[in-house]
UniProtKB/TrEMBL annotation:
Source species of the chain: Papaver somniferum (Opium poppy)
Feature: compositional bias, Acidic residues: 139-151
Annotated segments matching region Disordered: 139-169
Protein's name in the database: Mitochondrial glycoprotein
Classification via Pfam families: MAM33
Stored SUPFAM superfamilies: Mitochondrial glycoprotein MAM33-like (SSF54529)
GO cellular component, one term: mitochondrial matrix
Amino acid sequence: MATLSRMMKKAASSVIPLANRTPCRNYTSAIFTTPLKTSTAIRTVTSSSNLFRTTSIPANRHFSALAKKKPDSDDTLLRVIESEINDAEEEAGDFEVGEAPSEFPFKIVDNEGDETITLTRNYQGEEIKVTVYKPDLSGDYEEDEEEDQDNQEANQGGEEEEEEGVSQPVDMVVTVTKKDGPTLEFDVMVEADEITINNLAVKNPNVSDEDIAYEGPEFSSLDEELQEAFHTYLEIRGIKPSIANFLHDYMVKKEHKEYTLWLKNLKNFIAN
């Protein structure tokens, strides 16, 4: 029995040191080698990231520079527009407008950017509104005006005769309204020596736009006495031949001013 006990103690003592040594050797090796590999991997990734950033920045800058560069044709267009603006501003002084005639009873409403002007006044409870359109400076009228000027230069009759020889028609729409009732609408052409009524209509504010209202016959087909009465009707309300030249000059100047503004808007659009 004593011999068997000594043999068991000897076997146990030889097993315990072996178990203690084996884990220490394995874990110690893993602890020291793993951090070295991780550190090397981090340096490699960081180095690759830095290389990517270094090569990508110049590419972005190059693309941005190309995007901001305008075509040569745009620069040429801008130069032409600027030249037109300079010419228009130099010519602005050629468009002079004299004082309104003493019998001109209207207030002028001139909004920048609008093609027309509006004349307004109140007359014995009536609201009178006149929309004046820009004159047509092309076609037969322009040729007739040149012929009139040639005839005036040949004629030495003085300034008064020269003014009477120039015809400067102005197209307008005249509306006369009484409170909330219907409106008389005249399509009119005013010249220095006469007024021409092209059309006359009665507008009812209570009639829907979808309804087609009867607007009356052609004005020229009316009895001559009735036509003359309507001419007098308009003259009493301020639509007279004496305002033709003033309005013509005013609208010619406005046309030039609006053209200059239009050119400047074009320039701003192309430049930006």
